[in-house]
Amino acid sequence: MLKIDYQEHQLVFSNLLCDCGMKHAEPDLDVYIGSGIIPRVATYLGKRDLGKNVLLVTDNVVYPIAGKQVQQVLTDAGYQVELCLLEREGELIPDETALGEILLTMTNETEFLLAVGSGSLTDLTRYVAHVAGKPFAVVGTAPSMDGYTSVVAPLTFGNLKLNKPATYPKVLVCDLEIMAKAPYKMLLAGFGDVMGKYIAKADWILGSIVNQEPICPTCIELITRAVDGCIRNIDGIKQQTVEGVKGLIEGLILAGVTILIIGNTRPVASNEHGMAHYWEMMKLLAGEEPASHGLAVGVGTIYALKFYEFFFQQDFTKQSLDKAKASSLSKEEREAIILEKYGAKIGRAIIKGNPDDFISWEEQQRRFQAIVNNHELIKERLAFLPSADQMIEIYQKFGAPWKVQDLDISQELLYDGLAYAKDYRSRYTVFKSANELGILEELVQQTMDFFKGI
Hints:
Layout: E1 3-7, E2 10-14, E3 30-34, H1 41-46, E4 53-59, H2 63-76, E5 80-86, H3 96-105, E6 112-117, H4 119-132, E7 136-140, E8 152-157, E9 160-165, E10 171-175, H5 176-180, H6 184-195, H7 197-211, H8 217-232, H9 234-239, H10 242-262, H11 271-285, H12 293-312, H13 321-327, H14 331-342, H15 344-353, H16 361-373, H17 375-381, H18 388-398, H19 411-420, H20 430-437, H21 440-452
Parallel strand pairs: 3-10, 4-5, 4-6, 6-7, 7-10
Antiparallel strand pairs: 1-2, 2-3, 8-9
């Protein structure tokens, strides 16, 4: 397991002991969480000896809130600060244009990069730092996502959502006074991102039962702790108190550390994220502005929970192998559907990026039998899942969006997300289980019908 302690404002990770057999990386970063700690940024960075020439990456929204102060603190401390200010009229998209701006602002003297912001800013900076072979640090400004400590950068290239290998920050500074003043929607996005861990955890365990997929108990413990901590702090998060925001950002950091430990997002992202990515890509293709990622993940979590409920209601012992075979697709048929539902460019990238995702009928039969034979074990191991109604009640208490209509997602886009987001990644999910049993379409329809009635 992983030991976690506080030493003043510093969150300290140590003694990673896990015998799950998976390759693990010991977290080697300094995390500081506290109120009014931005004036200490230079001191925190100095302990890591990253250099004195820094490229500060921020945008026109964050700069007056925190970027300017960080720039002044570093300048006063003797740092040579080069500013990369990503100016946008609307939302900053982490795309090839933004990456180019950061790269072109770097100089031969740049020793490390510093992101001041949250999601897109940190993802852009971590990827540039990784490609350039430079260390980087982060001053987080909103508890809006779990990627602060990630080693994966979700980026957009030609409307395609890509998850690129990257690096994690050597220093992460979270000033709770700044974070508590973040727009309420950003807190809702962070909360939705953490609630998505219910589905990620369930799908990972499901994959371990059906496909003997390796699973890490340390990561499971961390994401469980992250979710529980946020649930305990619901009132404080809603009121945007310092303590409530602290509980939320701690949950997001703990979830993100799992990505660092095993090098991928399996512990924290599954079909609820796939649905959010699908909706975002389709919105961008249509020239429309998508909802924030965390809000979409939160909504996707509600629908995935209800799908799980209908899945558990099935009598697995009466599933028809003939029905499963009738719904089985050839490789060519599957690829044609992906190209149709994702568009030619994105679809080709998905097919190329997941070469092993097509399974033969023989493999589908094996999975079919594994699900049927282990149906009681599956229900027992996934009994921790809350009901969709329980989660809706929590969202309503927050005033958070929980229906696709709240995000301007049509019924057609909802159906395609439920039915085809499973193809976005080569990652086992309950939607793939339903597909292998030959009942995906009917469970998708049941899920949609349920929400039409409320």
